[in-house]
Amino acid sequence: MRGERGRGRGGRFGVRGGGPVPGFRPFVPHIPFDLYVCEIAFPRLKPAPDETAFSEALLKRNQDLGPTSVEQEIEEMRQVGSYKKGTMTTGHNVADLAVILKILPSVETVTALGTKVVETLRTQDPSEVLSMLPNETGFEISSADATVKILIATVPHNMRKLEPDVHIDMKLLQNSLAAVRHARWFEENASHSTVKVLVRLLKDLRIRFPGFEPLTPWMLDLLGHSAVMNNPSRQPLALNVAFRRSLQMLSSGLFLPGSAGIADPCENGHYRVFTVMNLEQQDMVCLTAQTLVRLLSHGGYMKILGLDGDASHLVVETSTWDGVTVKPSEKAYEKMPEVELEVDDDDDDDAEMESMDAKEVMDTKE
User: Fold this and answer.
1) Distances (CA, A) of 8 to 17, 27, 268, 271
2) For residues 29 and 27, what is the distance between their CA atoms, to the nearest angstrom?
3) pLDDT, tens only, 111-124
4) How far apart are CA 83 and CA 72, in angstroms?
5) 3-class DSSP state for residue 329?
6) Residue closest to 224 by CA, chosen among 43, 85, 352
7) pTM, whole model, 2 decimals?
8) Which of 228, 256, 223 is nearest to 240 (CA)?
């Protein structure tokens, strides 16, 4: 029987087949002597000594060893963003850290935390010139060479206690928690070197081609992973193949309405990551990718990669490549202007007359 596991072959308690072993004395655990359990049996003959100094010494040592008030407020701290994922780009030397607080994240508390961190860093290296700048998501600490961006979050059960005028906006706190989930997923699923290189290249495209600006870093992470790993063999594709594929995926409408897109692996349900973009932005991403695919097909990779001067104009101007004319894609979505309904004064007069006529009819019936 399941409840008898461990009793065969002597078992834990020296039994065999459920019965006692002849000549075996079963082990009975004992309770160590504790004066405070049986103090009534040992009455004190002398008064208790004065141990005030000893108590004060214990409190002092506890203060020395205990964490500061700031440290106690911190539940967890994690590296996130491009710094953690290994996809940072030159000229953007910013490391992102998500700090999850146990307490409610008020603006004053976050500013005090930033000030305390800077003071600690200055103590470690007085020659370092540091600055701290609070922002809507937390704060940034900068030196001459780099910047650390602190994203503030809080434990989930604090979310329902937030006050809009006192604490950091709930949406921003949720974004910081999402950044932690994104970093963890990327580390577990997209750590292949080809994925990291491709994501870095896609981020560079986003900087140099305005049509890609609506793409978030998380979209680029998932796009890079999908372009490299999402294939029948489940083996990573070569970088050149994956780069072209990523542009082809966008140009074919991967991030357009009606597309399955890419489901967010860090959210519940089938949440498509591109839905944070509006229709105009989705169209702009698609037409930019379509133009770049045509340029790539005619040998324009040096321009696309920024190795041969600026190429941002090529997505809005016609260009020629070895006698082949490449025309940029045009918008498929036009935002409709808001139309204000104007009421004609004559219409008002007519409506008033009709109302008066109706009243006269009712009076006649009465």
Assistant:
1) 6, 17, 48, 54
2) 6
3) 999 999 899 888 88
4) 26
5) coil
6) 85
7) 0.67
8) 228
